[in-house]
Amino acid sequence: MTNDLYAVVGHPISHSKSPRIHSLFACQTGEALEYTAIQAPLDGFEATVAQFFERGGGGLNVTVPFKEQAWQMAQRRTERAQKAGAANTLYLDEDGRLTADNTDGQGLVSDLCGNHGVELAGANILVLGAGGAVRGVLAPLLAAKPAALTIANRTLAKAEALLALFAPDAGATRLSACGFDAPDRPYDLIINGTSASLQGDLPPLSPSVIDNRTVVYDMMYAASETTFNQWARERGAQQTIDGLGMLVEQAAESFRVWRGIKPVTAPVIAELRD
Ligand code: ATR
Predict the structure, then answer these.
(1) Most CB within 10 Å of its CB: which of 54, 217, 261, 262?
(2) Whole-Å CA distances, 141 to 31, 138, 144, 197
(3) Which amino acid residue places its CA nearest to atom 9 of ligand 1?
(4) Which atom of ligand 1 is nearest to the CA of 155?
(5) Ligand 1 centroid vs 82 CA: distance in angstroms?
(6) What are the residues whose beta carbons fall under 8 Å from the beta carbon of 208, sequence distance 6 or more?
């Protein structure tokens, strides 16, 4: 193995689009690298990572259900990984220390602002969910200086815990936490970071959170429109966006961390949509 070998580790992993995305990046940038998918045993993540790097691998992406474990086992964490409490990117630093990074939040913000022209500064944002996925994106969202950011979750205590954790990052943004029953006015942007759609569920929100200026972003993606985006579109949202762009953007940021070159994402997103 050489340090031109990269991989995504998860369980299950066969559905992962990451090998295709990174192969497209490698072709586009002329970087000679190989990127594979590794299914680690549920009780064997750390051993899988250790073996990969002992054999000279260059970097790993980490996906469900190992992102928190990746964060815990790292000897060093970037600032954004520290705040996210989870890692989707691992590499060895110049001193050989296992380093955890998290590019998910950057991926979301790049997709929203760069690919879809959404203005975050001054916006009134509703974020649904308070699990690992939401924790991973709050710091970059707050860094974009929205006027207000409300975290709504089924379990209020988890939204309140995130509020306490991110209050020091809020600056002038009004940061608040609530249950799904509280929001009752239109938002500029609603981001669904719950895993409700995996069970075919919808967060029980008032339809009044959407008007014809609301942009809706579902961090999930699927071959067909997500349940949440369908609900939002039928209620007249201005625009509904799924998480495919975020997936490609977080991959591009990992590629940049490893190789020092940022791939152009638009053609890769277009190819995956086909
Ligand atoms: P992830 O890493 O994907 O964020 P997680 O940490 O388990 O996974 O968090 C899942 C999130 O989706 C939580 O906010 C969860 O709400 P609770 O904190 O109340 O459990 C939310 N969620 C999962 N299923 C849901 C459903 N059917 N309706 C609404 N919210 C749901």
Answers:
(1) 217
(2) 31, 5, 5, 23
(3) 131
(4) 19
(5) 21
(6) 184, 185, 186
Active site positions, annotated: 67
Helical packing angle, 18-29 and 244-259, nearest 10°: 50
Taking only the tens place, the pLDDT of each residue in 216-261 is: 999 999 889 999 999 999 999 999 999 999 999 999 999 999 999 9
Query: Residues with Cβ within 6 A of ligand 1?
Result: 129-133, 153-155, 158, 194-196, 199, 201, 203
The contacts of residue 151 (CB under 8 Å, 6+ apart) are 127, 130, 134, 138, 159, 162, 163, 175, 176, 177, 178
CA proximity to 127, closest of 110, 115, 140: 140
pTM above 0.70, yes or no: yes
> Is pLDDT of 1 > 50?
no
Question: Which segments of the chain does DSSP mark as H helices, in order?
Answer: 18-29, 45-54, 67-73, 79-84, 104-109, 132-143, 156-166, 227-234, 244-259, 266-273
Residue 50 Cα, ligand 1 centroid: separation in angstroms? 30
Which domains, ranges and CATH numbers included, belong to the chain? 4-102+246-273 (3.40.50.10860), 105-242 (3.40.50.720)
Q: How far is the CA of 35 from the centre of ligand 1 (A)?
A: 30
Instruction: Give the residue carrying structure tokens 């609301």.
Output: 214
3-state secondary structure 167-202: HHHCCCCEEEEECCCCCCCCCCEEEECCCHHHHCCC
* Rounded-to-integer distance, Cα 205 and Cα 208, Å: 8
Amino acid at site 58? G
Q: Residues 247, 271: contact at Cβ < 8 Å?
A: no
Place of tokens 């955890």: 100
Is the model's pLDDT at 198 over the cut of 60?
yes
